[in-house]
Amino acid sequence: MIKTVHSYWAYIVLAILVFTVINAIIGLVQKKEFTHKDFRLGLFTLITTHIQFLIGVILYISEGRYNNFGETMKIPEARLLSLEHPIMMILAIVLITMGWSKHKKQVKSESKFKKFAIFYGLGLVLVLSRIPWSNWF
């Protein structure tokens, strides 16, 4: 059941993350005012990614993916699920969290959108790089 929740929640996280990055880029390019809507969107993205992380940790521990790394490293798909995916997702969440923290210290709207675009965008790139696409479709 945890695996199913983790899989379906991933669609939500990816959609919200893409939307937030696009919104930040549009806000930056069009020099829009950073509103409460943009603040809430960034916060909602942060929360959904952290929930996904917690679900992923529970899944990782419950499936025992940390066992027998020697054999796992020889199989590309198993290596992706046991090592590459978790590490990249942790790095993505760290970048998203950094973007959230850094945007709060900015005063100008342009700077706030820029922090979201850079950090959330880099997080999105990492997420897209290590999604187990063969399991998604």
What is the element layout, followed by pairings?
Blueprint: H1 2-29, H2 36-63, H3 69-72, H4 76-104, H5 109-129, H6 133-136
Number of domains: 1
Specify Rg, calculated over alpha carbons. 16 Å
Order of helices and strands: HHHHHH
Overall body shape: elongated
Description:
The protein has 137 residues and is mainly α. The chain has one domain. Helix content is 83%, strand content 0%. The protein contains six helices and no strands. The chain has helices spanning 2-29, 36-63, 69-72, 76-104, 109-129, 133-136. Helix 1 packs antiparallel against helix 2, helix 2 (36-63) packs antiparallel against helix 4 and helix 4 packs antiparallel against helix 5 (109-129). The longest helix is centred in the middle third of the chain and has 29 residues, at 76-104. The two termini are 18 Å apart. The mean pLDDT is 90.
Summarize the structure.
With about 140 residues, the protein is mainly α. The chain has helices at about 1-30, 35-65, 70, 75-105, 110-130, 135. It is elongated, with a radius of gyration of 16 Å.
